[in-house]
Amino acid sequence: MLYKLIFAAALLVPLPSAAQSAAIDAARSTVTVRVYKTGLFSALAHNHIIKAPIASGSVDPQQRIVSLTFNAADLKLVDTEGSESDHQEIEATMKGPTVLNVAQFPTIGFQSKKVGVANADSYQVTGDLKLHGVTREITIAVVLSGGVYKGSARLKQTDFGITPVKVAGGTVRVKDEIDVAFEIVTR
């Protein structure tokens, strides 16, 4: 008889809803890559700002899973310095075989493996970043503020098999380290 009462009581208690994965709002989310200059004549060059639109992705706060995909061909140089033809040449080099090689490696992806909670609105997200055909584990500090996930990471191009660009006999070079900042909004 007791088991029947427990069973009946269990039916009256609402079950927690299944974890809901929220799609990323690509139109309101931003990923910005900053590439820096170095070298003897670097004063004649400038740093670069690249926007990386998100092709697809989701965040599941209950299961603590994050998934992001970018189409490498959609990366856009948004520098304010230099001419339009300079921008086109830089973007062609970035997408070409010597840097990202988007023909061979059309997507960039991130898949979380672990999300640790630092406090109510701060997380340590560890996952695999696949870039240029190379997968590396990275950890990113992420803050949730006003419904927006924000964070940044410093990456080395050489860790992903990319040789930083050199011009003018190497007197102007791109630094190996790049900064990636993001603001992710879910729908």
Overall description:
By secondary structure, this protein is mostly beta strands. The chain has helices at 2-12, 84-95; strands at 22-23, 30-38, 48-51, 54-60, 65-71, 76-77, 107-119, 122-131, 134-145, 148-156, 166-167, 172-185. A hairpin with a 2-residue loop joins strand 8 and strand 9 (134-145). The protein starts with a helix and ends with a strand. 15% of the residues are buried.
SSE topology:
Layout: H1 2-12, E1 22-23, E2 30-38, E3 48-51, E4 54-60, E5 65-71, E6 76-77, H2 84-95, E7 107-119, E8 122-131, E9 134-145, E10 148-156, E11 166-167, E12 172-185
Antiparallel strand pairs: 1-4, 2-3, 2-12, 3-6, 4-5, 5-7, 7-8, 8-9, 9-10, 10-12, 11-12
Throw out a few tags for this protein.
single chain; 187 residues; 12-stranded antiparallel β-sheet; mainly beta; disordered N terminus
